[in-house]
Amino acid sequence: MKVKVISRSTDEFTRERSQDLQRVFRNFDPNLRKQEKAVEYVRALNAAKLDKVFARPFIGAMDGHIDSISCMAKNPNYLKGMFSGSMDGDIRLWDIASRQTVCQFPGHKGAVRGLTASTDGRILVSCGTDCTVRLWNVPVATIGNSDDSSDNSMKPLAVNVWKHAFWGVDHQWDGNLFATAGAQVDIWDHNRSQPVNTFQWGNDTVISVRFNPGEQAVFAASASDRSLILYDLRMSSPARKLIMRMASWQEEGGWTPRFSKPFNDWELEELEILAKLSKIRDCSPVWKTKTNSISWNPMEPMNFTAANEDCNCYSYDARKLDEAKCVHKDHVSAVMDIDYSPTGREFVTGSYDRTVRIFQYNGGHSREIYHTKRMQRVFCVKFTCDASYVVSGSDDTNLRLWKAKASEQLGVLLPREQKKHEYHEAVKNRYKHLPEVKRIVRHRHLPKPIYKAATLRRTMTEAERRKEERRKAHSAPGSISTEPLRKRRIIQEVE
Fold first, then answer.
1. If you count Cβ atoms within 10 Å of the first and of the last residue's Cβ in the chain, which end, N or C, has fewer?
2. Which among 44, 34, 163 has a CA at the least distance from the CA of 427?
3. How many CB atoms lie within 10 A of CB 417?
4. What is d(CA 344, CA 361) in angstroms, rounded to the nearest whole number?
5. Do the beta carbons of residue 177 and residue 185 sit within 8 Å?
6. What is the largest CA-CA distance in the chain?
7. Can you tell me the distance from the alpha carbon of 198 to that of 396, in angstroms, rounded to the nearest whole number?
8. What residues contact residue 341 under an 8 Å CB cut-off, 6+ apart?
9. Beta-strand relationship, 112-117 and 58-63
């Protein structure tokens, strides 16, 4: 007769040190755990609530500028280095770790409109409304020295004077060329005082320019005539051009021009009156769908996202520009800047409505919104090179440092803490579709003006949708076709 006994090796449960934890043996047979799903649901609910309890995204502000911050640039060779330029011509290099100024780059006589750094991080290129392009030597020795010394000023390596003002600049990801945006697109070399090439399509001002991270000869630009243009340095003329349509009130469900933001009660009442008039008289106001900034996805270099004046962001595939891949909504005013995370899975936007939002690369709505009482209109935003933090520059002369994940624990985590965080994320992801967990995860507190403006936009969008459905129902079959917003904003693609 065979008798089965429980046998365990002493090495399996004996502790090496008295401080070690006792190993607990568990039987994972589902037949013995009837309430396993219920227990996991409660854990997911508690994990979602704990995220709200520990959500402290704001880390600190970096003050030193005396005018609005107009542009920023990352140093690709130094993780904690960040450049910023203001409307009074001041350029600063910041140490994000200590939130102090490392050095200043004086010289511009007008607003600084563009900043970019070379691939090795040793050359800084700046341009502005004073019609000059300046090249600076980035001090490597002072990167680690975060002492706030106001007399630590740098002198430019070269000053190139040109015929028109500049609105943006971007450097190749691998090479010595950089492009400037203004009355036309100019291609510059570090060792030349004049452009080596010039591109022009139409007579409108070019607002922004961005090089492709995968193909160093390809770059995209946006112009004030609502167009997006793709260029190739190997060709003598622009490659492709996309023209966007003028957006009407009824199409988008709101009207938030930059000179009249719905931040006050009387402005909201005025908008409601205009909304009623536009529905009665069918005289909807329009505004330009101008693209303020462009950002390429670093992990999928064929895709880019455009920050638009009509409160939305549009993701495109450069190989197929006749429709947008995704429309990212939530802002209630013009989107001023956009920047992708180094992981390529999400991007951050800054808007004229005084908020910073983080979107998934394929998500129609933001997963996070950041705001403070003192923060004014956001003109520029950047992800740090490790995708852990977000830096925003606003009209109130401050740079602000945020966590990319609002409830993320700072500092070094023990292995047990790291495993617990991963388990909480796993159970939240498993039960995220359930109503209670979904409600807690999606809830965000909004400032009152933004909440009112968003509610007004939703009301008008829903009214227009019902109107289109009734018009289609009372028309001949096939006479009215519903066009999605991804295609509705595009007029034509020119090659």
1. N
2. 44
3. 12
4. 7
5. no
6. 101
7. 36
8. 347, 348, 383, 387, 404
9. unpaired
> What is the Cα gyration radius of the chain?
26
Q: How far is CA 9 from the centre of its chain?
A: 55
Give the residue carrying structure tokens 């925003």: 392
Token pair of 408 as six digits: 């993320």
For the chain, 495 residues long, the average pLDDT of each consecutive 10-residue run is: 77 80 78 86 96 94 94 91 94 93 92 94 93 90 50 83 93 93 93 90 87 93 90 84 65 41 44 45 51 95 94 92 92 95 96 96 94 94 95 95 93 92 95 95 92 93 92 90 82 74
Sign of CA dihedral 239, 171, 70, 316: positive
CA 129/CA 114 separation, integer angstroms: 10
State the amino acid at position 27 in one-letter form.
N
Distance in angstroms (rounded) separating the CA atoms of residues 389 and 262: 30
The strand pairing partners of 493, in sequence order, are: 242
Helix (H) or strand (E) holding 278: helix 265-281
Distances 406 to 28, 293, 308 between C-alpha atoms, Å:
34, 25, 26
334 contacts: CB under 8 Å, gap ≥ 6: 256, 258, 292, 308, 309, 310, 311, 351, 352
